[in-house]
């Protein structure tokens, strides 16, 4: 879902993407099982396909809401275990323990562990703000570069929702270049949300435009997202996920 909205969502409640902000786990209600597939094409000829599965246990009688996510591509695996708790009214804090295994066809197997933390505060039922610190241990894998992010989202009743995320990579970024993400979700037809957004990566000097759609049923939801680098004729990505909740 976040891929269709520019990668934003650190101040929103997205059950299948709690790795964006582990504090969102406490705001979710019920049990959610999500499976997703992402396919990317990079310049000049690179490709990557990623499979992910996640489970969220955040029932009202659960003392400590938790989520587990597993991801795999051709050479890497990732494991995420997050927990979250309300500490004051609608302010939740979360922590996530991460384990990454890189097993390239050429070279040595590499295992790294890391920690991320987050906060998510629902100021009103329509307005939320988030703060995330990712990969605090400063490991050596490129996928685990340390970063901090602030985010805000606002819902215009049941009609639409707007998200904005500002992310600052803290490693290999001497000039402090940021990544800006924004997305809009329309609910004019409640069962069929439409999404669009953009992502400006000042570190890579790239701009992505994104779009997507979904279907929300009584116990199941489907989402599709597309993103395109406007600076490249080839670089693009597709994502699809299915979520069951009860």
Number of domains: 1
Distance, first to last CA: 19 Å
Summarize the amount of helix as a percent range.
under 10%
Mean pLDDT, to the nearest integer, reads 93
Care to count the β-strands?
14
Number of helices: 0
Question: Which H/E pattern describes the elements?
Answer: EEEEEEEEEEEEEE
Strand order of the largest sheet: 1-2-3-4-5-6-7-8-9-10-11-12-13-14
Enter the CATH topology name: Porin
Question: What is the beta-strand fraction?
Answer: over 45%
Tell me the Rg in angstroms.
Answer: 17 Å
Q: What's the CATH first level?
A: Mainly Beta
Q: What overall geometry do the principal axes of the alpha carbons give?
A: globular
CATH architecture: Beta Barrel
Structure description:
The chain is mainly beta. It has one domain (2-245): monomeric porin ompg (Porin), CATH 2.40.160. Helices cover 0% and strands 59% of the residues. It has no helices and 14 strands. It has strands at residues 30-41, 47-58, 66-72, 76-88, 91-102, 110-122, 127-134, 147-156, 160-169, 179-186, 194-201, 206-216, 220-229, 236-245. It has a 14-stranded antiparallel β-barrel with strand order 1-2-3-4-5-6-7-8-9-10-11-12-13-14. Strand 3 (66-72) and strand 4 form a beta hairpin. It is globular. The mean pLDDT is 93.
